[in-house]
User: Fold this.
Amino acid sequence: MNRKAGNRHLETSLAAFKTYLKKDFISAIDITENLCEGFRDYLLKKYNGETPANYFMRFKRVLKAAKKDGYFRNNSSEDVVAKSNKNKQIKEILTEDDYIKLMNMPSKEAIKKLPRL
Assistant:
């Protein structure tokens, strides 16, 4: 299930779920809608931007596959919506003018070759 090389979201989502649970094993009967909501809220508190939604969507995908394979009668995460963190950190983006200024700045090597006054 979703085992592609470099699929860090699935692995990191599992690690976050284990940290949230504070244990490595959970019984299928313990995976309730309340637990899913708690995990989603934990992700929202811990991560910024789209990361909480990405990790929770991977979690939901695993539960959906488990239901499809007969491990669950219902999918406890089905009605729990994945959310992004509204407190996104705004990344600074270079404007075209900033980029041109940066490209026209002398490199460290060029500065070293300048005569000393």
